[in-house]
Amino acid sequence: MNQDSNLPLISGVIAAIGAGLCCAGPLVLLLLGISGSWISNLTLLEPYRPIFIVLVIAAFGFAGWKVHRPIEKCEQGTACAIPKTRKRRQVTFWVSALVALVLVTSNYWIIWFA
C-alpha cells in the first residue's frame, strides 16, 4: 500500500463530518457557548445528508478492501507487505470508521443529550 491508500480513509471521515454537520454542528456550537438564531440555519445541509452517507459507505468500503486484502496480493517492499504498518493501518481504519459511524448516526441519538 502506498500513500494514496490514506485517501479513502480521509475522504470517508470528511464525508461523515458532512453527514453529521446538520445535527452535531449546532449542538457542538451550543456546548461551546455559541448561540444565536443563525444556528438554526445550519440545517441547510440536511437535504444532502443521504449523499454524504453514500459517500461515507463507498469510501470506507474501498478503504476496507485495500486495508484488509490478503497480504499475498501486496507488492514486495510496499507498506501493505509490512505487518507492523499493515496492522497500524487496520487499527486506523476501524477507529476512523467508528468516528464516522458516530457522526453519521448523530441525528438519531443526539436528541437524548440536547
TrEMBL record:
Which domain of life does the UniProt lineage start with?
Bacteria
Give the chief site where it resides: membrane
Membrane-spanning residues where?
A: 12-35, 47-65, 91-111
Cellular component terms per the entry's GO annotation: plasma membrane
Could you cite one Gene Ontology molecular function of this protein?
metal ion binding
Keyword 4Fe-4S part of the UniProt annotation: no
State the membrane topology. Answer: Multi-pass membrane protein
One Pfam match: MerT
UniProt keyword terms in alphabetical order: Cell inner membrane, Cell membrane, Membrane, Mercuric resistance, Mercury, Metal-binding, Transmembrane, Transmembrane helix, Transport
Cell compartments where the protein resides: Cell inner membrane
Gene3D superfamilies linked to this entry: bacterial mercury transporter, merf
Per the entry, what this protein does is: Involved in mercury resistance. Probably transfers a mercuric ion from the periplasmic Hg(2+)-binding protein MerP to the cytoplasmic mercuric reductase MerA.
The entry sums up its family as follows: Belongs to the MerT family.
Please state what the protein is called. Answer: Mercuric transport protein MerT
> What is the source species?
Alteromonas profundi
